[in-house]
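Sharing a chain and its predicted structure for anyone who wants a worked example. Both blocks are below, sequence first, tokens second.
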Amino acid sequence: MPNNAGTKVRVAIVDDHEVVRIGLRNLIDHQPDLSVVGDYATGTDALCSVPQKADIVVLDVRLPDLDGFEVCRRLKAADDHVQVIMLTSFGQDEMVWDAINAGASGYLLKDSRGHTVLEGIRTVASGGSLFSPQVTAALFDRIRAMPGPPTGMEKLTETEQHVLAKIAEGKTNREIGQELYLSEKTVKHYVSNILSKLGYTRRAEAAAFYARLHSEHADT
């Protein structure tokens, strides 16, 4: 993911509403560190053009040809480097859960303010995950409703537990390193170990695990 000075984060937009695409393009292209490399009205067009071309994809859930979650899964399969932010009008917990399972790194509602979308793109580009407050509340409600307490925390070292807590706060690797006095490379190593030990592949899954564990402890 681009993180060097002067290197712009490449963003692709997938939404069947032209007004939304134009609005997002104008918003993003006015940023010195971001650049729109393409906008697409269908999932099929995006799948043909986006892999290897974009760093971040801002993706609508409802598309005329393919389900947005399926598009997300296929994009990740074709290019694991690309990160996806779902941008939609729907915040139901089931849809948020589907987005996480599809590999999305963020889920924002379309009524989010412009600066929230921009900061979301930057957060995800830096290795973090992002969910709007309304979405986070729905996600945590879903987690709390799951039967039985989560297990696996005992597999983590003390430092890994600290890193996991920061992941759950939505911190990027760089921010975690600054707060825990670790290099960004070391944090990346810890994150990889955490996901491996817990049996997850995505940061959002680890964050959800921690949130559920914290909820269980708070209720006791």
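Comments welcome. The first strand starts at residue 9 and ends at 14.
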